[in-house]
């Protein structure tokens, strides 16, 4: 670690987000598909929320969980994409010290909140298929309320130390972040302090939260598949799996983009540095844009509710 005496003693009050340092000339072209995806994500999630709110037949626990997912998607999009487009369109690369770490907190906490919400939704499907007679007594509005509190508190409290640890580091001179967003790794490596504990905490907490959610999701679908295969009534298997199809597609969107992002970061020396940056942005756009569309297309009740909503407008 370089000695702090080699750095300027002037404290850093803001950072500069240097998006795609090797390809800045085509940022304006990239802003077009990103802005369209952003508008699609916002429109689709707001439409879904309004549909569930206005359609009384959708006032059920499963749809309340879907509303929670849409709210998380909206917050994630608004936290990341407007600033990225501001950089692309107007060249406003500066971001204040406090705004950077607030963005870092929201990204880390809401990403794990989404993962936890998928886990709760998997449990909902498990009870619906494996314990159908007990479903009305287990999956209640009170259950959804308690599950939502658990999702927010578990992930918010456990990820809060990440931006706190990063903000307490000394930033002596360098303030240019080679990224479009304030990720913990991109920011903390600018510090003139030791960042080993900071990175270790993020690694442990990230894999603990996301890994435990993934294990529970896999277990839920293992029991679902075992139950479905034991059903001998004609058409029952297809019907049972159909109720899980939308949820599985959403998990695939979420986990695939995240997995690609992890792999590209691990092999960053073999690929252009701009690739992980782009994937990080897309991870905050593609799942939020596609999640409500998948449920809107595959769920008859939501599709009918959206049609009613559009006729009112």
UniProtKB/TrEMBL annotation:
<feature type="transmembrane region" description="Helical">
    <location>
        <begin position="236"/>
        <end position="263"/>
    </location>
</feature>
<feature type="transmembrane region" description="Helical">
    <location>
        <begin position="275"/>
        <end position="297"/>
    </location>
</feature>
<dbReference type="InterPro" id="IPR050402">
    <property type="entry name" value="OR51/52/56-like"/>
</dbReference>
<dbReference type="InterPro" id="IPR017452">
    <property type="entry name" value="GPCR_Rhodpsn_7TM"/>
</dbReference>
<keyword id="KW-0297">G-protein coupled receptor</keyword>
<dbReference type="InterPro" id="IPR000276">
    <property type="entry name" value="GPCR_Rhodpsn"/>
</dbReference>
<dbReference type="Pfam" id="PF13853">
    <property type="entry name" value="7tm_4"/>
</dbReference>
<dbReference type="GO" id="GO:0004984">
    <property type="term" value="F:olfactory receptor activity"/>
</dbReference>
<keyword id="KW-0675">Receptor</keyword>
<dbReference type="GO" id="GO:0005886">
    <property type="term" value="C:plasma membrane"/>
</dbReference>
<feature type="transmembrane region" description="Helical">
    <location>
        <begin position="143"/>
        <end position="166"/>
    </location>
</feature>
<dbReference type="InterPro" id="IPR000725">
    <property type="entry name" value="Olfact_rcpt"/>
</dbReference>
<keyword id="KW-0552">Olfaction</keyword>
<protein>
    <submittedName>
        <fullName>Olfactory receptor 56A4-like</fullName>
    </submittedName>
</protein>
<keyword id="KW-0812">Transmembrane</keyword>
<keyword id="KW-0716">Sensory transduction</keyword>
<keyword id="KW-0472">Membrane</keyword>
<feature type="domain" description="G-protein coupled receptors family 1 profile">
    <location>
        <begin position="44"/>
        <end position="295"/>
    </location>
</feature>
<keyword id="KW-1133">Transmembrane helix</keyword>
<feature type="transmembrane region" description="Helical">
    <location>
        <begin position="200"/>
        <end position="224"/>
    </location>
</feature>
<dbReference type="GO" id="GO:0071396">
    <property type="term" value="P:cellular response to lipid"/>
</dbReference>
<feature type="transmembrane region" description="Helical">
    <location>
        <begin position="62"/>
        <end position="81"/>
    </location>
</feature>
<feature type="transmembrane region" description="Helical">
    <location>
        <begin position="101"/>
        <end position="123"/>
    </location>
</feature>
<keyword id="KW-0807">Transducer</keyword>
<feature type="transmembrane region" description="Helical">
    <location>
        <begin position="30"/>
        <end position="50"/>
    </location>
</feature>
<dbReference type="GO" id="GO:0004930">
    <property type="term" value="F:G protein-coupled receptor activity"/>
</dbReference>
């Amino acid at each position: 670690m370089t000695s702090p005496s080699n750095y300027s003693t002037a404290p850093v009050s803001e950072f500069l987000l240097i998006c795609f340092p090797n390809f800045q000339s085509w940022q304006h072209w990239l802003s077009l598909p990103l802005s369209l995806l952003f508008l699609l994500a916002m429109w689709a999630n707001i439409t879904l929320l309004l549909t569930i709110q206005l359609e009384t037949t959708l006032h059920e626990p499963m749809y309340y969980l879907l509303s929670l997912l849409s709210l998380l998607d909206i917050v994630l999009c608004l936290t990341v994409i407007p600033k990225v487009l501001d950089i692309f369109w107007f060249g406003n690369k500066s971001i204040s010290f406090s705004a950077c770490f607030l963005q870092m907190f929201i990204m880390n906490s809401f990403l794990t909140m989404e993962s936890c919400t998928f886990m709760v939704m998997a449990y909902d499907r498990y009870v619906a298929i494996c314990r159908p007679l007990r479903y009305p007594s287990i999956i209640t509005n009170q259950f959804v309320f308690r599950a939502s509190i658990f999702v927010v508190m578990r992930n918010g409290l456990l990820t809060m130390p990440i931006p706190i640890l990063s903000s307490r580091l000394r930033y002596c001179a360098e303030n240019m972040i080679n990224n479009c967003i304030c990720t913990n790794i991109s920011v903390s490596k600018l510090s003139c302090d030791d960042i080993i504990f900071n990175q270790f905490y993020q690694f442990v907490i990230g894999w603990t939260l996301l890994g435990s959610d993934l294990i529970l999701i896999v277990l839920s679908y293992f029991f679902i598949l075992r139950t479905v295969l034991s059903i001998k009534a004609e058409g029952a298997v297809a019907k049972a799996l159909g109720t899980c199809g939308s949820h599985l597609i959403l998990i695939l969107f979420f986990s695939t983009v995240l997995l690609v992002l992890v792999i590209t970061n691990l092999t960053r020396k073999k690929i252009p540095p701009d690739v992980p940056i782009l994937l990080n942005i897309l991870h905050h756009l593609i799942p939020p844009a596609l999640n409500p569309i998948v449920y809107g297309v595959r769920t008859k009740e939501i599709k009918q509710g959206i049609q009613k909503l559009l006729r009112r407008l």
